[in-house]
Amino acid sequence: MNLFEKEELIRQAAEDFEAQSPEALLSWAVERFPNITLACSFGAEDVVLVDMLQKVSPKTDIFYLDTNVHFQETYETRDRLQQHYGVEFVQVLPKLTLEEQAQQFGEELWKSAPNQCCNIRKVDPLTDILKNYDAWITGIRRDQAPTRANSKKVEYDVKFGLVKFNPLASWTSEDVWNYIRSNNIIYNPLHDRNYPSIGCEHCTRPVAVGEDPRAGRWAGFEKTECGLHK
């Protein structure tokens, strides 16, 4: 398939699946792109997609970026999901340990240069793992942040050079939680403690009533994305 044909396929699929269910898009995605993977951060959107994918294509790879500084609750959610579904999530680690990072760039890099820390512990590992696939699935929703407002359900990811599927792009937070409750899905208990968006432990705080749902990420910095979805 040449570039023009791929672009036309993506454009048409985005149009065709805009009003269809996430499950319908997932079914088409894994059939059309067998070499596909789901990126899972163990947040609310991603546990929904894990459940849907297990029903549609249980053998499809699911990976997570292990920054080594996730909340203990996040690791426990991973373990509970693996046990429940009988799957093994692919662990993707940074090239540098926390000790090596501190030696090269100073202690607590996330405080002095959060973008650099995210690049080392998230963006570079993601770049490496996605080289093994033709397409990836994410839990992006348009109403999560202004930077995601124009996300299509199917698009070409120029940054990483592969097709990107966002099956929940048109969903609201209420849609996500209705699915979780209706299907009794395992989820990160931090969501019940005012953490609507969960990242690394050092860079995530609870959100107060009335605050933007992503206000708890990188508080004190003019930063709202780790760089995975720009």
Automatic annotation (TrEMBL):
Annotated ranges, domain Phosphoadenosine phosphosulphate reductase: 36-206
Secretion signal span: none
Alphabetical keyword list: Cytoplasm, Iron, Iron-sulfur, Metal-binding, Oxidoreductase
Cofactor binding note: Binds 1 [4Fe-4S] cluster per subunit.
Highest taxon of the lineage: Bacteria
GO molecular function terms noted in the UniProt entry: phosphoadenylyl-sulfate reductase (thioredoxin) activity
Subcellular location: Cytoplasm
UniProt feature coiled coil, ranges: none
Reactions performed catalytically: [thioredoxin]-disulfide + sulfite + AMP + 2 H(+) = adenosine 5'-phosphosulfate + [thioredoxin]-dithiol
Main location: cytoplasm
EC number(s) from the headed UniProt entry: 1.8.4.10
Binding, [4Fe-4S] cluster: 117-118, 200, 203
InterPro entries attached to this UniProt entry: APS_reductase, PAPS/APS_Rdtase, PAPS_reduct_dom
Required cofactor(s): [4Fe-4S] cluster
Pfam families: PAPS_reduct
Pathway noted in the entry: Sulfur metabolism; hydrogen sulfide biosynthesis; sulfite from sulfate
Class of enzymatic activity (EC top level): oxidoreductase
Function: Catalyzes the formation of sulfite from adenosine 5'-phosphosulfate (APS) using thioredoxin as an electron donor.
Stated family: Belongs to the PAPS reductase family. CysH subfamily.
Stated name of the protein: Adenosine 5'-phosphosulfate reductase
